[in-house]
Amino acid sequence: MRIAYHVVSAPAPLGLMFLAATGRGICHAEFMDRRSLKRTLQSHAAAHPGVEWAHSVSDLRPLAEQLDDWFCGVREQLDWPLDPIGDDVQRAVWSALRDVPFGSTCTLTQLARAAGQPQGSRAVAAAVLANPIVLAIPCHRVVGADGRPTAYVGGLPRKKWLLALEHRFHQLPHPDDNRVIAEARVVVKRPVVAARDKAARPKPTAARAGNVTRAAKPAAKSAAVRTAKPRAAALVAKPARGKR
Predict the structure, then answer these.
(1) Active site residue: 27, 72, 106, 139, which one?
(2) CATH 1.10.10.10, applies to 2-170
(3) Domain coordinates in residue numbering, the chain
(4) Separation CA 41–CA 27 (nearest Å)
(5) Gyration radius (Cα) of the chain, Å
(6) 110 φ, ψ to 5°?
(7) Which of 53, 109, 114, 126 has the largest count of CB atoms under 10 Å?
């Protein structure tokens, strides 16, 4: 039997994630914390005796791309074929967890009823903490009766971060929705005439200036004539001195 695996980097505080898949689907999706890849593989040796572990980016690339879309809010559901190892109670609990919608939460009591184990709260809680495929089986959506986050397989800080992420994206419209966000309005302003444009306007030519000058000269001449005529008459009227 062959199991393909790959390590992907998730946003902080999630860190590195270990993904492993059989020919039927994903069997492990977990946070590595500070464990090395060798120790991670050794921790699954007892559950998968005699298997061939093969590092394969191509086999797990579609799943890694779905993870990227999920972290960006583009995708709300991870469409992974799953192949978890567990007993009947665990499988029933994990199946019920997949029915909890994105951005929603449930209590342990509600989950136990959905899984058909209304009297088996302890077994249900153990199955939640034994979840081998995080995110695809969203055990982080289980909260206490008061609505506060409870124990999580990846630690309480990761659980709070995941719940906040889903809450934030759940309130936003889906990017695939064809919606008009706001009316686009274009305002075209009139061009402002700069000072240099005003200076560039054509000035009166020399011919025009000459016409104005020539037109003004006769008026000045006539005024001088009117002033000189009475003075000449006065000179003629005076008798010449020395002749009587």
Answers:
(1) 139
(2) yes
(3) 2-170
(4) 13
(5) 47
(6) -65, -40
(7) 114
